[in-house]
Structure formats: C-alpha cells, structure tokens
Input
Amino acid sequence: MGRPGTRRLAVLTVSAALVSVGAAAPPAAEASPATAKVPVAVGYGGAVASVDADASAAGIEVLRKGGNAVDAAVATAAALGVTEPYSAGVGGGGYFVYYDARTRSVHTIDGRETAPLSADEDLFKENGKALSFNDAVSSGLSVGTPGTPATWQKALDEWGSRRLGTVLKPAERLARDGFTVDDTFRSQTASNETRFRYFPDTAKLFLPHGKLPVVGSRFKNPGLARTYRELGREGVGAIYRGDIGDDIVKTVERPPVDPAAGWNARPGKLAEKDLAVYRAKLQAPTRTSYRGLNVYSIAPSSSGGTTVGEALNILERTDLSKASQTQYLHHYIEASRIAFADRGRWVGDPAAENVPTKQLLSQRFADSRACLIKDDAVLTSPLAPGDPRHPAACGKGGTAAPTTYEGENTTHLTVADKWGNVVSYTLTIEQTGGSGITVPGRGFLLNNELTDFSFTPANPAVHDPNLPGPGKRPRSSISPTIVLDRNDKPVVALGSPGGATIITTVLQTLTGFLDRHLPLVDAIAAPRASQRNAAKTELEPGLYDSAVRSRLEALGHSFTRNPEIGAATGVQRLPNGKWLAAAEKVRRGGGSAMVVDPAP
Output
C-alpha cells in the first residue's frame, strides 16, 4: 500500500514527453482529403484532440486566429456535428468542463437534454407495459430538448473571446463544401440503414441516391450549413424561441415516416414551451483527491464524476504502480463493479432527486466499500449498493439491481490554448444515429436521450432516481475530466464516448497514465476492460486473447468479448508552455491530435 508522490509524478510527466515528442504532428491548417489522422502531437500555442481530422483542424484554425480554448472547443464540436453526425450535433446535448488558467479553477456546464414538461414516469409505457428499447428509440418519444446550442452559447458568454457566428464558420464551410467519407462513416451509416429508410428526410441526406455513401466520396450537408449560418446570424434563440425550434417541435410531434415503411414512429410530447424554458446549467464540478492530485469532472445529472471519483477513492489505498498486471486489472474491475452498484441506486437529476453527491465522493464511504475487494476472490454481480449516507464497513445497503442500458455512441474533444486554459467536452445524441429522425431541411438528427431513463424501476424494491419526470434530465455516464497538480495547474485532461463504458474508459485511462506510467497516447490505446455491475466483464480482444485473461479467470472473473470500447482523447501539459495532444491509434478509425506550432 503506498502513495506515489509528486516527484514520481514529475518523472511520469517528463518520461511521457520524451516518449511522445518525436511523434509526427499533422499540419495545423485546415484538414483536406489528404490529411492523415495522427494520434499524438506535441508543440506550442495550444492543442486539439478529437476523433476527426477536419474537426481538430477547425479548433486549430480558431486557436491560430487568437481564439481561446473555449472558442476552439465550440468550433471543434460544431465541426463534429458535420463529420460525426451520428454521434453529436445541435440536436443533442452534453457536458462541458473548463479550466480557467487565470483563476486556476474548474467550472462546468450541464447541457443535458430534458424531458418534456408533460412527461411522467409512464413516458415509455403502453397499456401498462414498458415499450421495448427498439420501439422507443426511433420515435418522437425518445427526443429530449436539445442542450448543445445552449451549451455553446453559455460557454462563450462565460469564458469565450469570440462570437458564436465566428466560431461556427469552419463548420459551416465544412458542411457546405463537404468532407471525405471514411470507413467509419460508411459502416455507421450501414448499421443504421434500415431505420434511416423509415424517415425520408434522413434517407435523402445520409443515403444519397438511395445508396450507402462511398468511401472516398465527398459528403455535403447544405441544410446543416444553412442551420449554422442561421445560428451564427440570429443566435441560439433561433432554436429555443425561433424557426428552427418550431421545425424541431413539428418533427417530434409528427415524425415524418415513409408510409411504405410500416414503422410506428410514436409521436413525442416536446412543445415550444420546453424549448423556451431550457437552460444550460452552470454548476460546481465534482472533485476527488487521488495520489496528491485533484481530479475534477461533471456532477449529476451525469453519473460520470461521482462514479469515476468513487472508484478512484476505492483504489486510493492500493499501490497500482507496483501491482502485477493481473492484480491491477482485478482491483480496477472490482472498483468499477462497486461504483456502478452505487451509481444505479443513488444518482439521478439533482433537480428532481435527492442525490448524495458529497457522500458518494467521501473517502470514508469509499473505504467502507473497498474492504469488499479481496486479492484472491471476485465479487458477485449484480452487487448490492452501499449507503453513502451511513457508511458501514463492507456494508451493502440494499437489494442488488442490474445496470440499465445506455447507447454506446457519443464523441469527445479536448482542447488547450496558449494561455493554459483547458476544455474537456463530451457531446452526444445518445446511440449511433440518435432517434434516426432528421429535422426536414435542417441537416441534423434528433437525439434519443430520453431512452437513458429507466423505462421501469431497475429495482422494484426501492425508488429508482432515474425514472422519467417533467423537465427531468436523464442520468448520463459522460465523464469529461481535468486533473490538476498541487499548484492547481493542469496535469492531464481527457474523456471518451461509449455510453456506460465512458466511466470505465476514463477510469482505466487515468490509472494507466497516473499509476502505470504509460504515455498518454499509450494509456488511451491500451486494451480495455469494462465492468458495470454485470455478471461478466467486457474485454477488448487485446485482453480477451491474452494470457492475463486466464489468470483473471483463475480468480473467478467471467468475461465476454467486446470488439471496441470507447474512443478517448486527451491533452497533457508539458514544461515551458508545451502541450501534448493524444487520441486513439485504431479505435473508430483512429483519432486526430493537432497542435498550433509543432515542436521540432
């Protein structure tokens, strides 16, 4: 049992820099069809990491013109709405975490979508029975009030230096002129082809001439270009009080279905009032102390900050830097299992539920749960939750319940600027392709975030904090994270898509970087395990096909294979104003790391 000190952390930071400094950085100018994705870049003037080269280039363009990290984050996010339309866009929501270098403080925005004011616990029931997920998702019922446009405006108002219209220009140009279709975009279109054909406007946009987009072809979205231009000219009021919002409401209330499809796209309840009263919320971040560092993330309505934080607190007493690979993964998996058991019982929208956020993040509660972990045995899932309000040593304060399903898409971006400001921002329309419903003429898909609610109580014996309700925000697993040192300066910032696997991806990447001393790009690339209070832990092939799997099975673990978990990005502060940007090497076709001025 030990605590790595500051000296060891300094060595980790320098060693990561030495490993990565020779990596080639792509040109920081606008991306072109010939621009290759590069997973790591080192240099000065700021950095951007995302899943897409065009999107990262949009952020770099804004940084080069004197914009700050917030300006660049909004520009990158808007560009992702063009090139990653099945993961994010103005029809969705997300969570924004910002480090202010001047005040050395962290701030957050909850831009989660909300249920209609007319919603109740029976939102996803018909004739007294819960709808299936498939029946609910491709319907107006699944669509929440979008929060992404309000998040962009709130972030720019609070901390930005450029107008919305200015930072939307790169994305508007990208939508108008088009981007090059890659394998990931085609395969995601193919996986949604059947339901995209239910909706003529979706099929017209994403299945040009009735066919899947061809890899290497140019994909243009003039409707989205017009939407961005209108938002730039009129502001986000065009969505919350204007014509775009009217179009959203009409689409949700009367989903435009192809009559020949035979699909029952149930109408939603979203109304003009729901848009008019929506607010992106400034709120305090979660904060967890780990290895002498301060780990900041997003508080409920997302469960990301509390669940990652609790798991880190559970792992605090174990020296993971000296553990074998087997014991490291064993403790990481068990901490995840416990934290997810507690998440399911206690976390929901704090505006509607009494969420014990402070107690979930207390070291006392973590210690009371950590004693459940044994070096030579495995806990059984689903594990019963503890009671953070009344911690009892090795106590289980309730009936076990499984973790509910969340769609596994989303996208994450991480940005730093030359002044030292940092943004970690995860945005989403929930599952790949969202609801499948495109707003006619507007060029963007609507979210299916309301399916993140529990359709019925996960555990009938106790109150479920994640049932639908009027104006309520469904629980999320989004976990944008910023880690500061003892002097409140950034060490690393990161995040990931992946539904509930976001939490485990962020946790594993953090421990890989901070405890196992992996360079950031290698901590991101490391094969992943994801345990979410389920009977079996998901393993990527790099672990499933390795010898460590049999050693973990000897302890009692059970596994199932998952071909791909998450798609993280991050930035790391290096000495003397230098930044390292890191993204995936392979997952989702690889990510794109860029800096303003690459180091020689």
